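Running co-folding for iron/sulfur cluster.
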Amino acid sequence: MLVTYVRSSSYNNYAFCQMQYFITYVLGHQSDSGKKADMGTMAHKVMEILAGLKKFQQDNSRKKYLVVEDDAAGKIRIHKDSLYTDDFVDELCNIAIDCYAKNSKHKFGPKDRRDISETVWTFLRHSDGQFDPRLRNIHHPEPHFDIPIEEDWAKFEYEINGEKVEGQLAIKGTIDLVTKLNDDTIEVIDWKTGRRMDWATGEVKDYEKLENDAQLLLYFYAISKLYPEYPNRIMSIFFYKDKDGDPDPRPFSLMFDKSDEARFLEMLRIRVEEIRQNNSPKLLDPTRNHWKCKYLCHFCKNNWEGTDEKMCIYIEKHLKEHGMEKTLEECTRPGFNIGFYEAPG
Ligand code: SF4
């Protein structure tokens, strides 16, 4: 399979189901987001805007009005005294819900609104406000990263539809929040609104698991490149729910060091080489009767356009009959381009 970048979501998705990974990240077909995922996005948006307003206040201490231009919620402008009021947080929850609800295929009733607000307030109030972005020194609200891996094994060269694509494998993603604790130390916070479990293995995430968690290591590697001036980097991951989906707020904080950078690169190399050599992605369940196929997978619930075959079955057959190259040529989502072109030299 082609692989030009790795996201924390794609890394884990390959372990969940190789076919789902192939259809999503190689052929570029997106899944409709579930209602719970949309609710998580709404809660994240509130946290992001609060951090953005706090950052504005830090950078403009004399200004009476705080402003954030948000890609989804639009312009938010408030008097600085409002930032710390409960009313503003409640209003912001409604703004975040409305801005995503209008483009969502799901309906969000009063109970959903209460759940989202409850999630936000839990993050804000936990441990006397220790994780409230308004009470933190914000270094960067929601930084995006796109970092090439400067290793020989990370070079790639493919031919896609007669066009040569070459470059350096990159890791990409978004970090929820970076806060500054002192001149040597930053803390990265990642809000998790889903269950505290590994969906591929069903295991509960605890400290032991998190120390080897690919997403945390990927984030750690990214922040070591983005913020090399801070020798101490704390990674905190704040889970709202337990493995069964019941509220059980628990933050976990970890420190990684230089040796973990090498550990991450080795994990990444092994995974990337496995993906590259894989031209026949395995199915989570060849019968598609597993509940994860039936209830969680877009490619089981939806047919390939113009056919009465599930997307997963259609692609499996296409690969068997025509091989990888033809499948890439004929089944990639129009407009999707897996590779970015870098001019030689
Ligand atoms: S239906 Fe099942 S096997 Fe097919 S892509 Fe989805 S999870 Fe994988």
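Result summary
The mean pLDDT is 94.
The chain has two domains: 1-31+137-345, 35-136.
Job closed.
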